Amino acid sequence: MTATTAPGGPVEQRAAPMARRVLAQASFELRTTLRNGEQLLLTLILPVLILVALTRSDLVDVGGEDRVAVVAPGVLALAVMSTAFTSQAITTAFDRRAGVLRLLATTPLGRSGLVLGKALGVLALELVQLAVLGGVAALLGWRPSVSGAPLALVALLLGTLAFSGLALLLAGVLRAEAVLAVANLVWVLLLVGGAVILPADVLPGPLAAAAPWLPSGALGDALRSASTDGTVQALPLLVLSGWSVLLGAAVARFARWS
Fold first, then answer.
1. How far is residue 228's CA from residue 215's CA, in Å, rounded to a whole number?
2. Tens of pLDDT along the chain (258 residues)?
3. Cβ–Cβ < 8 Å for 195, 221
4. Rounded to whole angstroms, what are the CA distances from 40 to 55, 83, 133, 223, 246?
5. What are the sequence ranges of the domains in the chain?
6. How far apart are CA 161 and CA 227, in angstroms?
7. Distance CA 5, CA 162 (A)
8. What's the angle, vertex CA 99, arms to CA 96 and CA 100, rounded to 5?
9. How far, in Å, CA of 84 to CA of 120, rounded?
10. How many Cα atoms occupy the beta-carbon half-sphere of 1 within 13 Å?
């Protein structure tokens, strides 16, 4: 808020410009996540541990001889899923239960500003994850294709949209305690059988066939292909786009603010 004094009158309060309001909300979302030990464990610590464990151990077949080349992009996909889906679903659900979403929607920030602020907060946290995980992977010997970086960024943005849609849908239709359980369960299921870290062809029968059609499998495949060959097939990007549109429409139709 900014204050102005009318000639001969009282001090008037005016809302800050929309861009400043959105950036302030994004900064708040980022600081809240980084200060939350549980969220930090989910979004940074666990992905780092998984990256090191799968790269340095041969107990799990990762579907390639260069283990870090397979695991690193998959862990980046896992980080996006953790931030855009699990973390966002839980925090939004408890904000909704506490009435925070309804309150903020009535302020100058508004619903659109709140959604934009949350989106920018997620993207900012993902930049932190990319820096940390990419640095650890580089120390482990990862040398991704530079030419595939633009395609990888496209896949990351589409994956963020898809998982954010799923997060907001759950947070907008279920009770907070249910979201906490469902979001963590879905995270575990996609980690184990969603081809997010490991390629779909190392999964057993039905999972190998279904995983590429899930947002987790599509994002993992796109990042592995972009970082290894510098190219991405159309199918993973189309799958991510389809999930983004479908889940976005579901949020607009079914999600509630209170």
1. 20
2. 454 555 555 545 566 677 888 888 888 888 888 788 888 888 899 999 999 999 998 888 887 778 999 999 999 999 999 999 999 999 899 988 888 777 776 777 777 777 788 888 888 999 999 999 999 999 999 999 999 999 999 999 999 999 999 999 999 999 999 999 999 999 999 999 999 998 998 888 889 999 999 999 999 999 999 999 999 999 999 999 999 999 999 998 998 877
3. yes
4. 22, 10, 13, 23, 29
5. 15-254
6. 21
7. 46
8. 80
9. 11
10. 8
Q: Are 169 and 178 in contact (CB under 8 A)?
A: no
Q: Rounded to 5 degrees, what angle do the CA atoms 57, 196, 125 make?
A: 100
At 22, give phi and psi (nearest 5°). Answer: -65, -45
Structure tokens at 19: 């861009």
- Residue 250: which H helix or E strand, with range? helix 234-254
The alpha carbons of the chain give a radius of gyration, in whole angstroms, of 20
Q: Read out DSSP for 76-103?
A: HHHHHIIIIIIIHHHHHHHHHHTTHHHH
- State whether the Cα torsion 251-184-98-88 is positive or negative: negative
Token duo for residue 179:
């979201």
Amino acid letter, residue 73: P
Q: Which two tokens stand for residue 54?
A: 């799968």
Contact 92, 101 (CB under 8 A): yes
The structure tokens 């592995």 sit at: 224
What type of residue is 149? Answer: A
Q: What is the pTM of this model?
A: 0.87
How many other CB atoms are there within 10 angstroms of residue 159's CB atom?
30
